[in-house]
Amino acid sequence: MNKTIFITGGAGFIGSHVVREFVNKYPDYHIVNVDALTYAGNLENLRDVERKSNYSFVKQDIRDAAGVSALFEKHQPDGVIHLAAESHVDRSIVAPTDFVLTNVLGTVNLLNAARETWKDKPEGKRFHHVSTDEVYGTLGETGLFTEDTPYDPHSPYSASKASSDHFVRAYQDTYDLPVVITNCSNNYGPNHFPEKLIPLCILNVLNEKPLPIYGDGKYTRDWLFVVDHARAIDLVFHQGKNGESYNIGGFNEWQNIDLVKELCKQMDEKLGRASGTAEKLITYVKDRPGHDLRYAIDATKINTELGYTPSVTFEEGLSHTIDWFLNNRQWLENVASGDYQHYYEEQYGE
Ligand code: NAD
Ligand code: DAU
């Protein structure tokens, strides 16, 4: 093994795809998945790679500074790809402090441990912080987020991610820690936890339950297939420049209502139901407080500097995603039981 790489949050939605990409592509790396296994972490996401000799899992909460330091001391990682986070905006509105503790304090704990471990030999080391386009706040009807767009977060989730981005940059400026940041748009794909719009709608179409659309449904998001995010992380981790940020997106904007109608159309076809059946489930509900109108990424920098382009269209990616959920009903049932039922009732109950 010529390198040890920590991937934090590797049992989550995006993290599991990043782990898979790295384990399969880099047999010479030792990939250590560092994850606390919260409600969003699920080792079932990694059944296909868990027996590979270059993969290991460590259960570790990044809020625990001493535990994090001991882990760095033991493994002496050469790189960190940091995805562990509380990731759901609606949950951040209900419990903001959880987001400060994991997303801000947890990130600072990792930065401190990396700084200590790499202080004598920072060359060839890299701390890659995986962040979001939500740090830029909201766009109006036009325009795109570039890497120079000023930060203007509105939700407790995006405020916590913005804060963590600032800490990462501060460690580069103050301590010369070698860092890169990526800010990505909305992901979708296999293993997506059904609290988020797309998997929630897939689950509810299957169960013939209402498809809750916040406000007027005209809010716009820029969607990227999760495997394409993992590919972009690989590219930036290996070829990005220290101290730089890279936006990741697919130039693929959809108003929520149009996206849900496309999902309904595809699901009716796949389930052999009459056209229009799923759309009847669409239900407009109370809006999300502080709801950002529109996100859209200008991905020119990663495209021109690193040659990155997404590999699938949205329609293809969505079709693949729905097929995955239809073929993995047990996964869906497992994650949508227990705590999830309680969350669902609190969020969407009368
Ligand atoms: P997720 O909620 O599916 O997974 C988060 C993972 O982090 C889980 O495995 C969980 O167990 C782990 N985790 C949470 N708290 C932890 C703690 N205190 N210690 C250790 N592990 C902990 O999230 P996701 O959607 O896969 O997002 C991963 C990262 O990518 C996050 O940093 C998120 O901000 C960022 N991001 C997400 C999207 C998106 O569309 N989902 C887009 C851009 C950026
Ligand atoms: O932009 C990147 C961000 O995308 C990531 O940083 C976050 O971790 C990720 O959760 C995602 O945030 P969003 O809030 O955009 O995703 P979500 O799937 O929760 O919502 C997408 C849009 O759909 C948003 O406008 C809110 C709306 N929505 C969501 C839910 C859950 C609904 O209308 N109804 C719903 O029930």
Automatic annotation (TrEMBL):
Coiled-coil region(s): none
What UniProt keywords apply to this chain's record, in alphabetical order?
A: Lyase, NAD
CDD domains named among the record's database cross-references: dTDP_GD_SDR_e
Query: What domain of life is recorded for the organism?
Result: Bacteria
Q: What are the NAD(P)-binding domain coordinates in residue numbering? A: 6-320
Which cofactors does this protein require?
NAD(+)
- Show the catalytic activity: dTDP-alpha-D-glucose = dTDP-4-dehydro-6-deoxy-alpha-D-glucose + H2O
The record, for InterPro entries, names: dTDP_Gluc_deHydtase, NAD(P)-bd_dom, NAD(P)-bd_dom_sf
Broad class of enzyme this protein falls into:
lyase
One GO molecular function term? dTDP-glucose 4,6-dehydratase activity
The UniProt entry, under SUPFAM superfamilies, shows: NAD(P)-binding Rossmann-fold domains (SSF51735)
Q: What is its EC number?
A: 4.2.1.46
| Pfam families associated with the record | GDP_Man_Dehyd
Q: Which Gene3D superfamilies match?
A: NAD(P)-binding Rossmann-like Domain (3.40.50.720), UDP-galactose 4-epimerase, domain 1 (3.90.25.10)
| Family designation | Belongs to the NAD(P)-dependent epimerase/dehydratase family. dTDP-glucose dehydratase subfamily.
**Protein name per the record:** dTDP-glucose 4,6-dehydratase
In which organism is this protein found? Sphingobacterium arenae
